[in-house]
Amino acid sequence: MSSTSSVSDTIAVMKATQKYLYQFACPILMLFGTIGCILNLIIFTEKALRKNPCSIYFIAYNMANFLYIYSSLLALTLSVGYSIDVSIYNLIVCRLRIYTVSLFNTLSPFYLILASVDRVFITSSNALIRQRSTCRFAYLCIIIGTLFWALFHSHALIASNIKQIAPSSFLCYFQQGIHLVFVSYYSVIKETLALLLMIIFGLWSINNIRNLRHIRVVSNLS
Question: d(Cα 134, Cα 63) in Å, to the nearest integer?
Answer without folding.
Answer: 20
